[in-house]
Amino acid sequence: MEHFVVSARKYRPQTFKDVVGQQAITNTLLNAIEHNHLAQALLFTGPRGVGKTTCARILAKMINSEGNETEDEDFAFNIFELDAASNNSVDDIRSLTDQVRIPPQVGKYKVYIIDEVHMLSQAAFNAFLKTLEEPPKHCIFILATTEKHKIIPTILSRCQIFDFKRITVKDAKEYLKYIAEQQGITADDDALHIIAQKADGAMRDALSIFDRVVSFSGKNLTRQAVTENLNVLDYDTYFTSTDYILENKIPELLLQFNNTLSKGFDGHHYIAGLASHFRDLLVSKTTETIELLEVGDQTKEKYLKQSQKASQDFLLKGIELANDCDLKYKTSKNQRLLVELCIMQLASITFDGEKKNSKHYIIPASYFKKKGITPVPVKVPEQVSSQNNTTSNKTEVTTAASKHVESLQVKEPKKIILKQGTKRTSGLSLSSIRAKKEHQIKQMDVVVDEEDLPKEDFTEADLIAHWKKFTQILIEKGKHNLASILSMDTPKVKGTTIHLEYPNATNKVELERQQYDLMAYLRKSLSNYDISLDISVNEILEKQYTYTPADKFEKLNEKNPNLDLLRRTFDLDI
Question: Which residues contact 537 (CB under 8 A, 6 or more apart)?
Answer without folding.
Answer: 501, 502, 503, 504, 505, 508
